[in-house]
Amino acid sequence: MADVICRGCRGRFHETTAAFDPEVVATGNMFALKEPYRTWRWSSFPERPEHKLAALECPQCGVPYPDVAGKVLTTAEAKAPAEPKPPAKKKRAPRKTTGAKTKQASRS
């Protein structure tokens, strides 16, 4: 199970259930209120499949968990490795500047 990350306050109050599928639009049965919030009787959206999109909101700040595409940010996605970056170009060693001052002086 992964934590659900709120896009508004960055809180983690819900976790995913076995019904969670990141490839489909999120529904209420894909999430469960975490402990100790459940024991403290925090209010939350009903954990049923008919509750979708804006109804799936953070109990702390009220921002909907899903984005406009219906996808939810979870710790599983946050820990996913980033795409590999191309190797950085090697930096050149600085040029030696010996004699630069003498050339300037000889011109005057």
Walk me through the structure:
This protein is low in regular secondary structure and 108 residues long. The protein has one domain (1-79). The chain is 11% helix and 7% strand. The chain has 2 helices and 3 strands. It has helices spanning 75-78, 100-107; strands at residues 3-4, 14-16, 31-33. It has a 3-stranded antiparallel beta sheet with strand order 1-2-3, with no helix packed on it. It is elongated, with a radius of gyration of 27 Å. The protein starts with a strand and ends with a helix. The mean pLDDT is 81.
Strand arrangement within the widest β-sheet reads: 1-2-3
Low-confidence stretches: none
Counting H and I runs of at least 4 residues, what is the number of helices? 2
H/E order of the elements? EEEHH
Major β-sheet annotation: 3 strands, antiparallel
Query: What is the SS-derived class?
Result: little secondary structure
**Number of domain units:** 1
Task: Please tally the β strands and state the result.
Answer: 3
Mean pLDDT metric: 81
The proportion of residues forming helix, as a percent range, comes to 10-25%
Write the layout of secondary structure elements.
Layout: E1 3-4, E2 14-16, E3 31-33, H1 75-78, H2 100-107
Antiparallel strand pairs: 1-2, 2-3
